Amino acid sequence: MLSINNLHVNAGGTEILKGLNLEVAPGEVHAIMGPNGSGKSTTAHVLSGRDGYDVTEGSVRYFGKDLLDLAPEERACEGIFLAFQYPVEIPGVNNMYFLRAALNAQLKYRGEPELDAVKFMKLIRGLMGELHMDKKYLERPVNEGFSGGEKKRNEILQMSVLRPKLAILDETDSGLDIDALKVVADGVNRLRSADRAFIVVTHYQRLLDYIQPDHVHVMSGGKIVRSGDKSLALELEDKGYSWIESLPAA
Amino acid sequence: MFDILQQEFKTNRSMDPTWLSDFRDHNYRKFEELGFPTTKSETWRYMDLNHLRDLCYSLPKSEVSSEIFTSLRFKTHKRTLCCSFLNGKLKTVESGGVDLSSLGLDAFGEESTWLEERLDGGDISSHPFRALNGAFLDHVVTIRSESLKGAFDEVILDFVWTSAEEAMIASPRVMIEVQTGQELQVMNIHRGVACQKAMVNLATDIWVKPGGRLNYLKYEENQETHIDSTRVSVGRDGYFRGSYYGFGSAVSRVSFEADLIGSGAECFLDGLQITSRNEHSDFMSEIRHMATNTTSHEYVKGVLGGKSSSAFYGYVFVDAEAQKTDAVQTNRNLLLSQGAVANSRPQLEIYADDVKCAHGSTVGQLDESQVFYLRSRGFTEAKARAELTKAFVAELFSHLSNREVSSWLMAKAEARIAESLGEA
Amino acid sequence: MTTSQTIDDFSGDYKYGFVTDIETEQIEPGLSKDTLRFISAKKKEPDWLLQWRFKAYERWLKMRDPMWAKVDYPPIDFQGISYYAAPKSNKDGPKSLDEVDPELLETYEKLGIPLHERARLAGVAVDAVFDSVSVATTFKEKLSEAGVIFCPISEAVQSHPDLVKKYLGSVVPHSDNYYSALNSAVFSDGSFVYIPEGVRCPMELSTYFRINAQNTGQFERTLIVADKGSYVSYLEGCTAPMRDENQLHAAVVELVAMEGAEIKYSTVQNWYPGDKDGKGGIYNFVTKRGICKGRKSKISWTQVETGSAITWKYPSCILQGDESVGEFYSVAVANNAQQADTGTKMIHLGKNTSSTIISKGISAGRAQNSYRGLVAVKGKAHGARNYTQCDSLLFGNKCGAHTFPYIEVANPSAQVEHEASTSKISEDQLFYCQQRGLSEEDAVSLIVNGFCKEVFKKLPMEFAVEAQKLLAVSLEGSVG
Q: Could you report the predicted ipTM of this complex, rounded to two decimals?
């Protein structure tokens, strides 16, 4: 479904991605690991269409379309979801209202009937229970006054409601205690299915204890330097990131 | 009201070059046109200058008994240049034998071309006190980083003013230029000694060239009327940090106008006004962001006792070109007594959209629960209030690198606070 | 994200810009004592009121146009304005809704005013002022059962002269400022409300103002008196047709709250703002002031200002009674060539008085939007409290957002806190919304409504919905 080919990306005049290649098929879970500054988050941002990045070379195909041609909201409506590393606060905007507006925008894009408030409430109540989220979060402004863990859970709630085809988790595990981590991982695992893929960007192996990846990639210096299965993550944990730098490019 | 004085002054200074007398005449005419500002003017709203109008002014007398004069003697390190002035005239310099003839510490020296250009450059169309300063311009001190010959990185100007008998008007000017890539600290200290009748009308001009850095301190106390109009221009990636301490002239008005003309220029401005009795202290700043990525942070506190009053005007202008401006202004006032009045007018005028601008202003009193807490630990009430007030002002001294100076200032502040609290 | 396209795309979609084709009686432009006599005679006013008008007029002649506001406009030709215009068929005033010109009713339909059926459903009593006269006041009977007086001020002059005489000009004296003096001289109508002691007004009262006739100014006068322990919520809406010339609206609103009384005054102001080049539009120069006379009284102003070429207004509170409360909640939007200079004054006189100011300014296009506000704590106002928050949002770098607070504190037990911020719409927020599938326009509208939430939630429900829609229309095309 996703095919990244020799992707080069500049940000602020510096080349961050230097020839990234990645193939993701439906149903797969890919973990991308790597030290700070290796280009992990940039990859997540470029895929979701964030401003401020220049693609200088290479291509990204998504279900046969040129992904880089689409506006951020079109990508969202086409089923790409980014769980933000730092979820954004939107003062004054009710969390539930926001979520329903987003869902209905996507339903409309796909030509499906929009959900009214009653149906939506029914849907969301169940999901919140699964994520151990208090209903009070629905009445609060989006992410405002949420703790770090609550924000991340709110991201997973949004993902559960929007049911994307490709979910990108950008360091969703950072700053979470072990209980919150399990809740987040459960939320992801519940959504795993044959037609849905995940890209899990993480700095630590810890999350992968709970979300079993099919493939693990290690990034360094703007490209993937090594790919493998789950054992690669353990090896990396064991040897540390300095090990990567000594490796020849894959 | 200055006609006779001007004639006298012109006669005294008949040997001065033509450009200088022209400059004075031009300024004098401008002042006559403008007159003293009134409270009808938006930026002079809280300051009554009526007492200045009907006085018969005289010029500063330099033949003053030196008995009243003790210059500040900080145990300065080698790289500090200490200069003392009595009624504007240079008295002592501790330069450690370095030749400073090109510095221009007294009157007009060798610097006339440099001076001529810079004096002429300043706009006085809406600045009556600047015009008045120009009209009677007598003593000019110029500090140029390159003239310090690498021997000094700190200059202390200690001005002592005295005039107990006659209504004196003094018009000193201080000009500071920090060259590209150079760094300097300057302290501009104005003390009144037996100074019940003096109006000190200072004008200060500061240029921080690209990449230059200036730490500037202004101190003022114990004059009848103290006016200071400071203009600052900061070039690309330049840094200006100004600190103002106003510790009790009967009427004082200190203004900073800073133009951030180069991209990346920074301006930090701190101020502390401590007033008591019937004093009035006006602090005004006008910061103009004219280039991208410029920063200004302003932090001004006031402590008011007796029947004193203060005003803070903080104006920030962001030009349409000045994207990525970061401007913050904060004004906090502590009212210690019934009868004291604090006025605060932060202002933002913004024409660029990609900016981060904010201001905050508070007027309040000591937290009674904190007072109670200290008393429950054995402090007397007076002591508790004094300690909490000191704590309120303490942060305005923390950035000063010269410990001698900061402890001198803190002792001054403590005395002033005791005075203000005594009247509560 | 760029905002450079902005204004060019803006179509100036002012849906209230129609002109109603009804016969109007309008006097020739010009202002003199005869004009005052004419208006006074039309209204069959008692002599004291005519004399009062004369006094105001003479005062006005000696005054000058205020220059301190950050607005720019050519001198107004006061002789070029017609000071009285009335729908002709209503020369003698309608006795009931059935007597109102059907075309006029249709106008109100278009405006979305709940006058007929909708009025009953919404439970809103409406006094509609069309050009210079009140054309219909609904629900009079139900209100009078509760002892509430709600009628055109011209009628109140006849039916309750003592109340009018006592309070007219008591909060905004005719000498207060240039435009209040002019209004006092030439005001032609407006609303009068009196809530008797202990009465909670059974429904929300509402006035809609509309300028229809050409070359007219509108000078209405509103007076609301809430007696001890009473409560009233009053709504005000305004529209005007699209015309190329500027029209002047100089109203005066006076509120009086006695001990324990509460007045909630909400405005959705959508006068014609002029076209995108700044041609035409209303000059909205309004003086609104309330006095909290009695202990524990409360006055709350809420305004959503999206219209007018120029807005110059500062709804204020004089907090005279001990423990009285003043509030000001404002959203001001300025787009294209609009100029807004608005804010409030909170004058603390009594002990333990408190005030809250929340101001949200939005600038787009080439507009200038200023907050100007005074918080004054006088010497005897022990324990006074004020909290002020002013936030500005900018779209594009051709507009301006300005904040001019005046804080004057003369009591050492007062606590006054002012905060202000200015920023553009956050890229992070926009991207977050877009990543969830919202279009840029929807994302902007969502974020802006969130920005204004604190103010909107102070409005009665149906007004809040209208305000949100207005906001969206006003900012349409502002983000490229």
A: 0.86
